[in-house]
Write a structure and sequence with these properties.
By secondary structure, the chain is mainly α. The protein has one domain (about 50-175). The protein contains 6 helices and no strands. The longest helix has about 30 residues, at about 1-35.
């Protein structure tokens, strides 16, 4: 009877260790490849969009902490990218590109806020840097796809946004050091 319990215990421990390793690998791959953009909400072609834009400006104005502002800027950049994709799918290419470009301005501001916090000697949460890193990869992936799918006048504009995001990757990598 003791032998049976010991063998059963060893089998269960072995199975659990394999499953936890497999789950850790899946979670790691998921974090690398499945960075989720936020729901875009109202699009700029909606007559009530100005309310959303005003709300965002007020929130941005009220945030004084550079780390919180960096988080907000990252969220804003990701939202603008999601909005730009939705507009692209609606074949509103000009509005899509300008929205994404404005979103990349937020991204750049977020990186600058992280840099300012670092210069002030503030401790940057490693998960925030990971989010910036994953977001740059997602931005590159989506902009690469839009560049391929866009018609000729917009191909160059999306390619320019893609080059800009490539520079952001380098800037975020410097912040990790």
């Amino acid at each position: 009877m003791k032998r049976f319990l010991i063998i059963t215990f060893l089998i269960i421990v072995t199975l659990l260790s394999f499953n936890s390793a497999a789950l850790a690998q899946v979670a790691s791959e998921s974090a690398k490849n499945n960075y989720q953009l936020p729901y875009p909400g109202l699009l700029p072609d909606n007559p009530l969009y100005f309310l959303k834009a005003a709300r965002d400006r007020i929130i941005e104005f009220l945030i004084s902490d550079p780390l919180k502002k960096a988080e907000f800027d990252l969220l804003s950049a990701d939202k603008r990218l999601a909005v730009g994709v939705a507009l692209f799918d609606k074949k509103k290419y000009e509005l899509s590109e300008t929205t994404i470009s404005k979103g990349e301005n937020y991204f750049e501001d977020g990186i600058k806020n992280l840099d300012n916090a670092k210069r002030e000697g503030r401790q940057i949460d490693p998960s925030l840097l990971v989010n910036f890193d994953l977001s740059t990869k997602k931005h590159k992936e989506i902009l690469g796809s839009l560049t391929v799918r866009a018609n000729e006048p917009f191909k160059k504009k999306f390619a320019k946004d893609l080059e800009r995001v490539t520079r952001f990757v380098e800037m975020v990598n410097k912040l990790k050091l």
